[in-house]
């Protein structure tokens, strides 16, 4: 009956979401699909340019509080785990960067690597004002940044 408890917990969390939250999740799911197909068909750089885009003209920079920023990270994480495909850190970070840029924040996509045992591990994250968003405090120490866009 573990599946029942898990499903029940997820249903309870879903009921706690507002309409605005669902709208963010729906938009994030759309952009996750764009990133998934784009990375496979158009490559990284072109997909990054498409997703990042430019903020809509005339939109002033919006001050986003820490609580709202963490909520956005949470909702994009929900969108990344929902559906039939699970999205890794790269599509999730591309979508988060898009949402932050369109709110007028200077969001920077970082991609880093580290040696994990005998293998190389990679990770993507987003930084705003030099601080990783939605990541553990030491992400920059654990991964050597290679790409910044």
Q: Can you describe this structure in just a few lines?
A:
The protein has 149 residues and is of the alpha+beta class. The chain has helices spanning 2-15, 19-41, 44-52, 66-81, 89-101, 139-142, and strands at 107-116, 119-128, 131-133, 144-148.
Keywords:
149 residues; alpha+beta; four-stranded antiparallel β-sheet; 6 helices
Task: Describe the model.
The structure is a single chain. The protein is of the alpha+beta class. 53% of the residues lie in helices and 19% in strands. A four-stranded antiparallel β-sheet has the order 3-2-1-4.
Counting structural domains, the number is: 1
Reading the helices and strands in chain order gives HHHHHEEEHE
Shape: globular
Poorly predicted regions are: none
What is the rounded Rg?
Answer: 16 Å
Largest sheet: 4 strands, antiparallel
Number of helices: 6
> Roughly what fraction of the amino acids lie in strands?
15-25%
* Helix content bin: 40-55%
Distance between the termini: 46 Å
Number of strands: 4
Derived from helix and strand composition plus strand pairing, the structural class reads alpha+beta
Query: What's the average pLDDT?
Result: 84
- Numbering strands along the chain, what is their spatial order in the largest sheet? 3-2-1-4
């Amino acid at each position: 009956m573990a599946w029942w408890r898990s499903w029940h917990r997820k249903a309870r969390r879903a009921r706690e979401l507002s309409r605005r939250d669902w709208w963010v999740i729906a938009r994030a799911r759309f952009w996750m699909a764009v990133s998934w197909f784009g990375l496979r068909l158009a490559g990284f750089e072109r997909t990054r340019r498409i997703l990042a885009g430019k903020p809509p003209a005339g939109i002033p920079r919006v001050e986003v509080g820490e609580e709202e920023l963490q909520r956005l990270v949470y909702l994009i994480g929900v969108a990344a785990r929902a559906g039939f495909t699970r999205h890794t850190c790269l599509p999730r970070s591309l979508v988060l960067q898009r949402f932050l840029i369109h709110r007028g924040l200077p969001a920077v996509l970082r991609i880093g690597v580290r040696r994990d045992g005998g293998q190389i591990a990679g990770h993507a994250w987003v930084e705003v004002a030099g601080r990783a968003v939605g990541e553990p405090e030491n992400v920059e120490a654990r991964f050597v940044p290679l790409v910044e866009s």
